[in-house]
Amino acid sequence: MSNTPSTPVLQSQPLGPLWPTLDPFLFCAHHDDAYPAGNASFGPAVPVDDRQIGSDFSRKDGWSMYHGDTVPGFPGHPHRGFETVTLVRKGLIDHSDSLGAAARFGGGDVQWVTAGKGIVHSEMFPLLNASEPNPLELFQIWLNLPARHKMVEPHFTMLWNERIPRLVHHDEAGRATTVTVVAGALPAAPAPLAPPPESWASQPGADVAIWTLRLDPGAQWPMPAAQGEGTRRMLYFFVGDGLRVGPQEVREHAAMEVDARQDWLLTNTGPTVMELLVLQGRPIGEPVAQYGPFVMNTQQEIMQAMQDYRRTQFGGWPWPDSDPVHGTEARRFARYPGQAEDEVPAAA
């Protein structure tokens, strides 16, 4: 479509397992798993013999084991050169890493990890409820780092649900839109929590925003223009029956690049609640070389990352297992590197 003021949607494609992204974002996955009741080992209390254990992305019966053997999830694996931002909508995740950090988080919490020069972490999905299903839903977003920050020290932080700012907007008919502001300033909303210090989201003029939107049936919300020059914006329509962006109708779930230079009125045209994810930022504009969990600027740097990991294991793994689970209690906590006490989330 032509890039004109009357054309808010610049490009669009249906949603698949992996959602398309724009620089500075590298990757966006939406995991939505209808896990059954759990067993004594925090795994599914149903047979898994017919799955490709160790690499199960089958979605059989509505869920996958991923790389987990007993517990679903992703046992210890390395990263270098970018950041992971994990937004949990349902369920709980157990995090452990080579820094010695640990966390159990979920229900609206966000974990933000700067891999920098190298980190190893595990992300396990313990099925704590033995009598009822254990649904899990999350977004994992990869945000690139500029070349000057590729080799910074790794950093781990939690943004607790109770502290993440939200804007509740009522249109003229009183219908509500709730915007959860994970990152990026939003007019009329409380100030966002600070991203990690070396993140692209912390750099002046980067204009990075990560928002989730929930619109009541019929609700309208004036999505403001981006603040930065050259900012690009992706809008992901993943829940609901109908969306209108300015004058354009969107009837199928889709990933859309929208013109970030102008305000656009978003309208939920369906009879049910609509939900959207917004990712925006000014492009880093540097070459991207990627090999699995490593994202650098050149193939030579990728080779160096692989050699460094083989040689150092990015500091080693301080846990007795590759897939640690943090007990039976469904409590949320974080333990930061060098701290002996757990940090329990509290309202702001």
From TrEMBL:
PANTHER family: PIRIN, PIRIN-RELATED. Fe cation binds at residues 77, 79, 121, 123. It comes from Acidovorax soli. CDD domains: cupin_pirin_N (cd02909). Keywords: Iron, Metal-binding. Pfam families: Pirin (PF02678), Pirin_C (PF05726). The keyword ATP-binding does not apply. Residues 211-315 form the Pirin C-terminal domain. It comes from the Bacteria. Residues 68-143 form the Pirin N-terminal domain. Coiled coil: none annotated. Binds 1 Fe cation per subunit. Its cofactor is Fe cation. Belongs to the pirin family. One of its GO terms (molecular function) is metal ion binding. This is Redox-sensitive bicupin YhaK (Pirin superfamily).
